[in-house]
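tool=predict chain=A
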Amino acid sequence: MKVSDFDYELPEELIAQHPNEKRDEARLLVLDRKKQTMEHKIFKDIYDYLNPGDCLVINNTKVIPARLYGIRQITGANVEFLLLKRIEGDDWEVLVRPRKEIKRRQ
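tool=predict ok
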């Protein structure tokens, strides 16, 4: 599997900027693989799709404003950094686009 398999364009207007005040009314996309259909529901409808023995995993992660843009001094090319995880102090694990080699600054 390649990291590039996860590249996609997502229009800014489709990204939630704030959580719903009523969390159970958040949007829910239901994908039926057999019928190859999609339905738009709200999260409190999820009970309609769970069966005994199913496992529901809840993601409790927080989103940080972690996308940085820059310009390479030598070539003038645009560079995008996505901060994934703080390692220590100012050191971060990042994804870089384009994926050409970027030298780490000491």
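Residues 5 and 101 are 19 Å apart (CA to CA). The mean pLDDT is 84.
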